[in-house]
Please model this.
Amino acid sequence: MPAFALVSALESSSIRLASRFGRRALWLAVASALLIVAFVGYLGVQYIHAEGERRGWVDHSHEILTLLETIQRFSSADEATTLAFITTSDKRYLNLQQTNRVTQDVNLKHLIELVVDNPEQSAEARQLSDLILQRQAAMNQMIGIARANGQQAASAYFESPPVRELISTQRETFGQIQKQELVLLGQREQASADAERKAANFAAAGGFMSLVILLLALIDAKRQADLRVEAEREARKSEERFRLLIESVRDYAIIILDQQGHITSWSDGATQITGYHADEILGQHFSCFYQGEDIRADAPAHELRQAMQVGRYETESWRVRKDGTRFWANVITSAMRDDDGKLIGFSKVTRDLSERKRAEDEMMRARDAAEAATIAKSNFLAAMSHELRTPMTGVLGMIDLLRSSPTEQDHELFLETLKSSAKTLMTVLGDILDFSKIEAGRLELEKIDFSVDRLVREVVDLYAGQASVKGLVIQYPSQIDPARVVKGDPTRLRQILSNLVSNAIKFTSSGHIEIRVTGPVDGAAETPEAASISATGRPALKPGRWRFEVKDTGVGFDLDEVTRSYLFDAFTQADLSTTRQFGGTGLGLAICKRLVNAMGGEINAESQLGDGALFWFDLPLEPSTASLGAGPVSSESNPFQPSARSLNILVAEDNPVNQLIVTYMLQQMGHVATCVENGRLAVERVTDGGFDLILMDMQMPEMDGATATRNIRQLPAPYGTLPIIALTADATTRRREEYFDAGLTDFLTKPIDADALRAALDHFAALPPAETVS
Model:
């Protein structure tokens, strides 16, 4: 306003001077005007020069902010490529990571150069550079951990406090630099706006003064017109460059909306991301990019309201392309206002982050799978503890009873129970190794002769002590002839019954456990016993099948269809609340079901809450004509009687305890034992001569048993033809075949069975000495 007043006063004075003093006064006024114009022009030039500097600082701030966003994007890309490599092991992500890091280094150096004039920002920029380098080092470490220990360890490292704190510190430092630069940008833009208004005043003053100095204005008119044309040309070029810049951005969709949310401007990047062309989408409401549930939740209107209230709103969610496919989008919506603050529309910048989202989802799934595996492992170990402790209770209990100076009759009973418990313990240990075979359908089943009645009685004897501690009685009202022999797998049958009886004892606080066995009648489709069973609601017993039942008077459970569907799953119980009271994870029932299914049978249960439970299973057992006699199936002969012929035996065994056991057994049988610690020594000692037989452990240091056997078989007779009997805990079929291929004569498993060892040695002791070594 002061400039306008000055010009008006100058113009009035000139007119008055011209009319009053004539030509001289007019030239005086012109001279005065020229002086004033010169002074005003000088001030205008200063303001214009200052405005140029201010505009340069504004552009400087914009450049810093743009560079900060680029640095942040490359930092996120570094993390995303790391996670993608860990999830997919695709080395292309590492190549992309290295390329991004080279660009990131250039960006960081440029940032430090741009803020060198601001000491505080310069220090923070250097700190940000150090933090990004530390974060890159952490990502490198994470890749190393994944390669060495797997995704689970890498995920744990990524979620560790130091890494999360490093990322948080980087974000805070980035935010501080950005915030400071935004403040400077606001100040500079305000100063620029003030300068523009002042410059406008000076320009107006010069324009009005040109009326006073008409001659100078006429002379300069042509030049000003030319300058105007050039300025318009430059403005059009600038506008075209800006338009081309927007169109060249292919990774971002840049959209302009009116006040109601209808699309008024559309970029090529938007076409690239959504599939819509400008002529298809202009005029439509931007809600066409949202899913139906988001539209029903009023998400589009919510975004516009937030942008109007705070000026800028950022969100990440699913969006829909033209072809109906979804993409994970980062969307920034900003309100656009005129100089008076009136809303004139919205700008939306959308970025497709589907690849990053996919990598994050894969990482989450990998983490969930790792957590599930950890839980399953913990449950498995807990279940195995339960399965191992049960027979171990019988072992330790019988040892304590043997120390109490029992009678000779009790002494034999305790020894027999101790041996039965140890066999069950070995069976459970075998189950740990067999569980994966059961799942894979590679379970090996025996088909040998045994007495069902005697097997059940062994199980009753095994758990009688454990039941009596709780005041329970195990009833077995057998009607099966003890001499009746069948063909099947007694070890697996004993394991199934043991699991069911153990569970019954665990869930029963008073009363009894009853074991019932029903056998088939040859040639009958349905026996009287089967008919009575069918009347209870259980399926009729099929010909050739045996039914086993374990019934208790315990807590029971509600057996509905849902419970029945997971009753025999691994690590579950029918009522989860019982876990806290009784412990266990239910692995026993899972093993039972898999064993029964593998043997061609069927297993199920009946129960009501508070009324006990009954578990039953049917198995096909072939009848046998063999006779096992009235005594136990296992031999009761003393294996430690002196042998008819003493053998000189070389024992290759690295474990001192096993050496002691084998040496003592051999001495009790009347043989001479010489021990060596590994296969290499065994090969060396064989050539000393004098040995009748070799007992060879398969797993030894320096040289294993299979290699030692091959080396011995390459020796000349009689050394290379010595009988070699394997002693090993690895009794799988595949390993047996490998060991026999190495040249073994016989195969015994650990723990060493004295009867089996005696039988094998007696076979070779019965041969003439010449045959033994030839």
In short: The first strand starts at residue 252 and ends at 257. The chain is about 60% helix and 15% strand.
